[in-house]
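Standup, Tuesday
Yesterday: got the pipeline producing structure tokens again.
Today: sanity-check two examples.
Blockers: none.

Example 1:
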Amino acid sequence: MGLTDKVEIPRRTMVLFFVIDTSGSMGGSKIGAVNAAIEELIPALKDVSDENPDAIIKVAVLEFSSGFRWITQNGPVEVDKFHWTYIDAAGTTDLGAACRELDAKLSRKAFMQEAAGSFAPVIFLLSDGGPTDDFAGGLAVLQQNSWYKVAGRVAIAIGDDADKDVLEQFTGTSETVLEVHDAKTLKRLINMVAVRSSQIASRSSNVGDTGKNIVDDPNDPLGPGLDLTPILSDPDIITITNPDPKNTTIPEPEW
């Protein structure tokens, strides 16, 4: 190789995980808004990935109701190759089972096996809460996962009756639980938070190239976790979730 030859540095991977509640309580306008929001988000994420020379952004989607199903069953998909297919809502809320399945895939033997290393992932939980299975047991398993520990975690509470306590347990703090009450707000919120989170995460310290082999062992931490609090405290996002009470415009119909 000559001195003037260009050396192409491989782009590392940053995965956005979407864990979506498709139980019966999410039916109608709620799941319709989720479908529309994810569909509109993908082009924006593609732009972020194209503009970032360091990271390739991929998407992984897990839906749960009476059981669970990976929409991206073969692993995370690059955003420019990802096509959203609308999902329906029915059944119970097996969030505990979803936590166990997420733990299984947050592994170098599964969805985190990129040889070139990875940036800290970001996990979005979209739900109105109210798990019907062993959520505490499933979450306890997930909380021992090293990738979960370093991941940025955001929960979006959908609807007035959302169980925010459950969502707070998933993310670890009330500051990362965002509440929405209508379809328009949901679409704006998902787009803004996901795009900004991906920008931050794909520029953070990577966790796959530390000079040693990293194994999926809770006693072998990958490094400091990804803090998304600055993003969620952004005035633009606060305005979306807490509109000015003096605003006299007609609000979007609620669910």
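Example 2:
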Amino acid sequence: MQMASGIPFGESYSSPFGFMAKAYYGDELTEETMKFRVEKEPGTFWTYEGGNTILLGLILKNATGKTPSDYFAESFWGPMNAADHAYWNLDHEGGLEKTFTGFYATARDFARIGKLYMHHGVWNGDTLLSPDFVDACLQPNMIPDVDGEPCYWYGLHWWLGEQNGQKFFSCRGLRGQYIVGIPDAGLVIVRLGHLQRKDRTAHMPPDLFMYMDIARSIAAQTN
């Protein structure tokens, strides 16, 4: 969950022969993932790798005996009273969920995920996630990256940052899809996007800060 497994899957989106291409377009996700081995001591080196999220899906399936989609539906989607069905890409019919991508839902239902974390895992009085676990997810893991910089921008599968003195947490899709929670402002923001800037400000896409500014402005006018 820290993105520090020490397994070099590779996160290139330009190579048609890389792991990401096989993960997106191949039909044997488990087989492709299990070809890799640990090369660095786990917990000592941070680098974003979608393969880690695939491993989490496999671990979840082995631990619960349920597919990630069934487990998520029973444990979260149903209890959170999601308004619409969600869909998850599989590597083949009846196969494995691509847990690193391909989860489709409406903006309002995506916002429920942000709201759950804003409320420390408690949904309308029901504890769906341990508050201690949620708090751990939203703490920087501080594991050094390739430049030796302690990772202050990532916790446990959540991107972390600060704007205008207020901390925020976010999910981030390849095409600029975002779920953002700003606890001090009481805001949850969802963007269903198609484009994301490639440059980074404090390890974040600059457009993310723009959307937070817009949300704050709208909230101020509404209040």
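Quick observation on example 2: The two ends are 37 Å apart (CA to CA). The helical segments are 19-25, 29-33, 50-64, 68-77, 107-118, 131-137, 206-222.
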